[in-house]
């Protein structure tokens, strides 16, 4: 874990006229512009709402860094944690009624649903981007609206294939195939060995959305085109859904109701041998006191999803963004808190404590040693660099956020995979639902 610097309250509140400094991350030096000044309002108190952790180190270090911020600035901060599925509706309510937490750590393009309700963070985002190697393109697209930063990307909860190496070998494969036909054969082989796979098809914010969008995009399908026209009812989508039907036949029973914790539990319980998840499954097994789970951890490997007809990665991963609402009585204190949490003295130890569960939105943090300390971590390092945004191939905005929140793609895949609708029927229904948001 990184060694904290001697960071004083005076340093934190330094004037914007301060001389440029140099910050070292992972042994690499980066020129930094003059530090910004966010002087908290007198008597400021903050309330922060964020998602519940899947990795204990994440929560522990987040709370430790928050306490450190309070000690340095005198600003009391209350942190509340909600289930993944509950953050989005609570943020929407707060935006609607104009009251609630000062800062909400939300999902995907949530800020795009109510940009006028959020504080402009362009000065802070520009400062951080200039100091730490720049924002990944996908993070910039998610965080900005009409040229202004309305959300501050905290990072990407990386998503990858998590599998038992010994089980895929028993199924006749040395590694996970990198093509769609080979991947289907692997899953069929696992099923034949009674060591099936399983992917979430319920209202799973991360795991359901991530793999369902990959499935659609990997066959060349998409919800909308570059102009925002609904095009999901297409031959490419039908092919994706036929593939989903064949893949679903290899799943463990019950995936239609799976939410985000479900595949973690199924994997660790030995019910499945392959799924799509963050690094949290490996973390739980590796840090367990049970010999059986420790043995499982040694057998766990990670891989990127197969490449489909576009010939390039078509993965969706779960970006999480920090939003500061205009109704906050203490915007300066809140911006100070956001800056503090993104600086290396806090961000590096936090990312390490969570063993890379959230990967960096700023390129300089690629140098964090967490990505090479264990080769099983490395797949997650490049999450922001290879992912597509959930609006693909159209623009991000109110429509893309609403379509994602309505689980249109996940429901379409679930309907076709389970056989409750034919691929063409499921695609037609998805198009009809999408049209409500993407109005011509």
From TrEMBL:
Residues 1-31 form the signal peptide. It holds the Pfam family SBP_bac_8. Its main location: periplasm. GO terms for cellular component: periplasmic space. The keyword Repeat does not apply. Keywords: Signal, Transport. It is found in: Periplasm. PANTHER family: ABC TRANSPORTER PERIPLASMIC-BINDING PROTEIN YCJN-RELATED, ARABINOSE-BINDING PROTEIN-RELATED. Belongs to the bacterial solute-binding protein 1 family. This is ABC transporter substrate-binding protein. It comes from Cupriavidus basilensis.
